[in-house]
Amino acid sequence: MALTLSEKAAKHVSNYLAKRGKGVGVRLAVRTSGCSGMAYKLEFVDEISPDDLAFESHGVKIFTDAKSLPYIDGTELDFVKQGLNEGFQFNNPNVKDECGCGESFNV
């Protein structure tokens, strides 16, 4: 079981945490939402929860909860730039279907 960051994503997160002046990593979780049932939730972590599961990739810590892990196990978080747009991309091997807008998925 693991969550990883691409080198680009790790660099982006590290730079952002440095600019913020605080934070220990990022949290990746899922919530019920959208057309297909599940949506990703990504946030910066300032304090580690006792229930957190922790992974490290390219020197950056990634946290999740036990309920989310079965849906996102094996996911690589990438940071991509396409034209004027940039953002995180979730490469999740568990996804069976995604909604047309790309906001939600099911496994």
Task: Describe this structure as you would to a colleague.
Strand 8 and strand 9 (105-106) form a beta hairpin. The chain has a four-stranded mixed sheet. Helices cover 17% and strands 45% of the residues. The chain contains two helices and nine strands; from the N terminus they run E-H-E-E-E-E-H-E-E-E-E. The protein is α/β, with parallel strands linked by helices and 107 residues long. The mean pLDDT is 88. It has helices spanning 7-20, 69-72; strands spanning 4-5, 25-33, 37-45, 53-57, 60-64, 76-82, 85-91, 97-98, 105-106. The protein has a single domain (4-94), classed as Hypothetical Protein Aq_1857, Chain: A, CATH 2.60.300.12. The radius of gyration is 14 Å and the shape is globular.
Q: Which features does this protein show?
A:
single chain; 107 residues; alpha/beta; Hypothetical Protein Aq_1857, Chain: A; three-stranded mixed β-sheet; 2 helices; globular
Blueprint of the fold:
Elements: E1 4-5, H1 7-20, E2 25-33, E3 37-45, E4 53-57, E5 60-64, H2 69-72, E6 76-82, E7 85-91, E8 97-98, E9 105-106
Parallel strand pairs: 1-6, 2-5
Antiparallel strand pairs: 2-3, 4-5, 6-7, 8-9
Short description:
It is built from two helices and nine strands. The protein is of the alpha/beta class and 107 residues long. The protein has one domain: Hypothetical Protein Aq_1857, Chain: A (Sandwich), CATH 2.60.300.12.
